[in-house]
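Form 7-S
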Amino acid sequence: MKMIELCCCNGSFLVWNFEDVHRLRSEHRIVGNFIGCLPSLPRQDQMLGLPMELMIEEVYHLTSRGIVKLVEFKQLNLPAQGPNKEKIEEMHKASFADQEVIFKEERTKQLLQMADKIIEGKRRKMNGKTVDEKIALQEEIDKIPKMSKDLMMVQIFTRPHWTCQGESVLPLDYNVRPTLRCKVFSDLWEKGYYITSGEKFGGDYLVYPGDPLKFHSHFIAVCVEEHQMLTPWFLIQKGRLGTSVKKTVLMCSLDENDKVNYQSVNWNGK
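Output:
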């Protein structure tokens, strides 16, 4: 089966193809994190779209199993020249033209919704004389100004459209090495869980029994190095955190055989 391409960009690992995103989630239980704006809703950050960014642990897990390969589009670091430059300019012009059409359509909808008020206003100006509604509305529609380019969204190209072949790079070039976090991630994955970042909950990972779209997370995984000192304050903090969000905190570490061990931490407030 064809390997999935991960685009390396300034230290981030991105997936730009929706089919690859679906494949990673459905076949390999890799959730990732969408960071791009939706074309239809660009001015909000509650619902995001492509590209999907992967954690370094997800990248290690996938590369070590031969599921993905890292590629870099070095052409993006240089200004486009000749025919490629002309193609980019044409695409920008087409984007601006599309936005102008959408702007006029949206403004027309707004005017039609205000039709009664517009007609009433024109009747008052004409001292109650009869007003042809269609002509009056069309006059207002014709007054809609062209959208200024200063207000338009400018598309930033993140991979070259004139070639689809990225240059393969070695994982070691991007510091994709097996760390404690990587080993814990892979071990939890082997047990059948879905894993996402746990930063918002004070841990390393959130661990789900199924797809996060259908299930709440059951565990907060906290990775603990072999010689890390665990103070009472640290344990109480993590225990109370898990209790407050109704999740079990898992302390994850490696034993002398490099096997991942788990210890749950619970808080009893009595």
